[in-house]
């Protein structure tokens, strides 16, 4: 269980917020609900079950929504919150009935019958039992579970003879009931209660033994239910002189039960701490990875991508890749030598950082702004139209103009400006990419020669 929790947490941390992986997220949240349910952490279990229901609703996945609602209802049923359990069972029932879904219908009908009997809603329980027999396709399950349902029903309404018709058949088919020990416990619990109501000591005792058999390794709710049924059995069927002994045993068991609760709560708290520590470790690793990525792929001065990253990006998109729309934008600071000579290199560094910021602010997905060297910047654009490229360049120039960085020695303006050139085309090999970069550089010099503080470019066919 500890290992399962760690894997589930790792899986949870892998989901990026900006991607639509709701199908996978549904599976994970459902598993987390089951995990916390088995750990006795009901609060987290309910939270994750409800999240799973919401995701299933958004996906329109009625089948899986029914399964999660059934798990959620069963968690309440085990803790004897029958009204709440019934509400969730009924929601799942009507959802699958309206959608025409069959796989979970038999389970829901059986659970609905049980909870309705606990709530003494006998007519409703009868309807669910009849529908169960119509829906269940497995002949053996239909007979055995049907016998269990009718036995509980007739026991609840006080029809002794009819109830006893099914008892021996059920005891002969315990292997079928025991296939799922968690639901088997609830079934034997109902049968034991029915026999107690009919004052059938032998049958009640045998179902009590069956409860004990399937509860091995069960949760605290099963332990508590079993002990309560034992004391009820003693009070109903054993002589008065045995009652005090039964109460003493019950008291000792209850003390053990309370100790087990404390142990479970402590274990849940410890698990939560371990998971939080693991989460912190994952966050630390991510931070370290981000730092390493920044050191390796980012320009130290400006924070833009560096030339090394640019070369790697080109290789990734050309080595054996299909033809792809590529573009280079080459930008150069106008009269930067004059700026440095007049304002000093520290101011020059500040200006480069401001320019890089203007480029990165507008660099949406598939635009990679990098410092190529000195005062030259190169943007790689993948899959963009020529209109989108021009819009991006205009945005960079507008943001720089808004900053109004003074440049008294500029030959084209009283503030720091950029000249730019771009070339776009369909490329496949690295040779073609290099040619495209040279063409973008040529367009930059056209902008320089036409008076600076402007940009030119074109789309070309390389192949």
Automatic annotation (TrEMBL):
Xref: Pfam families: GGDEF (PF00990), TPR_12 (PF13424)
Show the Gene3D superfamilies listed in the entry.
3.30.70.270, Tetratricopeptide repeat domain (1.25.40.10)
Which keywords, in A-to-Z order, does the entry hold?
Coiled coil
Looking up InterPro entries in the UniProt record yields:
Diguanylate_Cyclase (IPR050469), GGDEF_dom (IPR000160), Nucleotide_cyclase (IPR029787), Rev_trsase/Diguanyl_cyclase (IPR043128), TPR-like_helical_dom_sf (IPR011990)
Per the record, the coiled-coil ranges are: 265-302
Organism annotation: Eisenbergiella tayi
GGDEF domain spans which residues? 324-460
Q: What is this protein called?
A: GGDEF domain-containing protein
What PROSITE patterns does the entry give?
GGDEF (PS50887)
Q: In terms of domain of life, where is this protein from?
A: Bacteria
Q: Which SUPFAM superfamilies match?
A: Nucleotide cyclase, TPR-like
């Amino acid at each position: 269980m500890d290992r399962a929790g760690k894997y589930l947490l790792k899986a949870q941390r892998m989901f990026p917020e900006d991607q639509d992986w709701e199908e996978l997220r549904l599976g994970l949240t459902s598993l987390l609900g089951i995990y916390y349910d088995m750990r006795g952490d009901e609060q987290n279990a309910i939270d994750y079950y409800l999240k799973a229901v919401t995701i299933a609703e958004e996906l329109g996945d009625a089948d899986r929504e029914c399964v999660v609602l059934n798990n959620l209802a069963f968690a309440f049923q085990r803790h004897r919150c029958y009204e709440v359990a019934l509400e969730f069972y009924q929601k799942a029932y009507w959802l699958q009935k309206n959608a025409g879904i069959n796989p979970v219908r038999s389970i829901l009908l059986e659970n609905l019958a049980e909870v309705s009997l606990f709530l003494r809603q006998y007519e409703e329980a009868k309807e669910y039992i009849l529908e169960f027999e119509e829906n269940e396709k497995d002949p053996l399950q239909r007979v055995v579970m049907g016998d269990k349902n009718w036995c509980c029903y007739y026991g609840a309404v006080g029809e002794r003879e009819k109830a006893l018709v099914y008892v021996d058949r059920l005891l002969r088919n315990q292997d079928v009931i025991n296939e799922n020990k968690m639901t088997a416990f609830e079934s034997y619990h109902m049968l034991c209660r029915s026999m107690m109501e009919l004052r059938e000591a032998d049958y009640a005792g045998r179902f009590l033994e069956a409860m004990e058999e399937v509860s091995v390794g069960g949760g605290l709710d099963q332990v508590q239910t079993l002990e309560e049924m034992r004391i009820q059995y003693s009070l109903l069927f054993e002589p008065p002189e045995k009652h005090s002994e039964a109460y003493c045993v019950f008291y000792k068991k209850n003390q053990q039960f309370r100790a087990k609760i404390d142990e479970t709560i402590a274990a849940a708290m410890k698990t939560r701490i371990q998971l939080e520590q693991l989460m912190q470790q994952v966050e630390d690793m991510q931070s370290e990875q981000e730092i390493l990525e920044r050191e390796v792929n980012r320009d130290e001065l400006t924070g833009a991508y560096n030339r090394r990253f640019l070369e790697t990006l080109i290789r990734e998109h050309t080595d054996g890749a299909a033809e792809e729309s590529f573009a280079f934008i080459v930008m150069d600071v106008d009269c930067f030598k004059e700026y440095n000579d007049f304002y000093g290199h520290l101011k020059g560094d500040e200006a480069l950082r401001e320019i890089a910021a203007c480029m990165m602010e507008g660099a949406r997905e598939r635009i990679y702004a990098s410092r190529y060297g000195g005062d030259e910047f190169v943007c790689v654009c993948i899959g963009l139209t020529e209109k989108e490229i021009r819009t991006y360049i205009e945005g960079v120039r507008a943001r720089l103009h808004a900053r109004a960085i003074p440049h008294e020695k500029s030959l084209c303006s009283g503030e720091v400006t950029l000249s730019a050139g771009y070339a776009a085309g369909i490329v496949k090999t690295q040779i073609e990419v290099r040619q495209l970069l040279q063409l973008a550089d040529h367009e930059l010099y056209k902008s320089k020669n036409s008076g600076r503080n402007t940009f030119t470019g074109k789309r070309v066919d390389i192949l």
